[in-house]
Amino acid sequence: MEQSVASLRKSAEPYAAWWQQKTSYVMDKTEEYYKTMEPGINTSVQTGRVTYEFLMNPPGKFYPSVGAVGFSAILGLYLAKGGRVKRLLFPTALMTVSASMFYPQHVAALVKEAKEQISSLASQKRVLLEDVWKGKSPGKEGVAIQRAESECWEGRGREVQ
User: Which is nearest to 91 in space by CA: 67, 70, 66, 60?
Assistant: First the structure.
């Protein structure tokens, strides 16, 4: 009996070693994947909790304003029968108009920020065009202007959000 159990163990040993190797590999990959995904999952859960708390205790007149903005989007889809561009622009424009009626302070801040960005960009382009018109090569200055321009757009976008 002992010899048959020993021979069974010897014949099953390679399969058991293979199984242990594969399960340890799977466990390592699963742990690595979990460590990669955990921050995103935690962020999603936290966002869900904050949203739930906000929707359970919304500020006054929140739901009517959301309803009006949503209705304007549906109206925009209805009016945009035809081309794809219309289906994109009409709902977006109507939602923007209705949201600006409910949140004028935010719209004023966004318009002010956009105005500053556009004027800054226009002045940088004017300097660049003057240099090109005068026959100067943009060279290092042009690269510096382009770098400042990209930093301006990237930095401003973070402040508004």
Answer: 70
Q: Is residue 5 exposed (0-12), middle (13-18) or buried (19+ Cβ within 10 Å)?
A: exposed
Query: Model-level pTM?
Result: 0.44
Cα–Cα distance measured from residue 14 to residue 95, given in angstroms and rounded to the nearest whole number: 66
Residues 6 or more apart whose Cβ sits within 8 Å of residue 132:
138
Residue labelled with tokens 């990237």: 154
Residue among 61, 159, 64, 45 at smallest CA distance from 112: 159
At residue 158, the pLDDT reads: 47
Token duo for residue 108: 């004023």
Strands (E), 9-63: none
| Residue 73 token pair | 């989007």
What distances in angstroms separate CA 56 from CA 22, 53, 61, one per listed residue?
48, 5, 13
Rounded CA gap, 21 and 15, in Å? 10
Instruction: Give dist(CA 76, CA 92) in Å, integer.
Output: 8
User: What's the rounded mean pLDDT across residues 15-43?
Assistant: 92
Q: Are 138 and 132 in contact (CB under 8 A)?
A: yes
Q: Residue 93 corresponds to which amino acid?
A: A
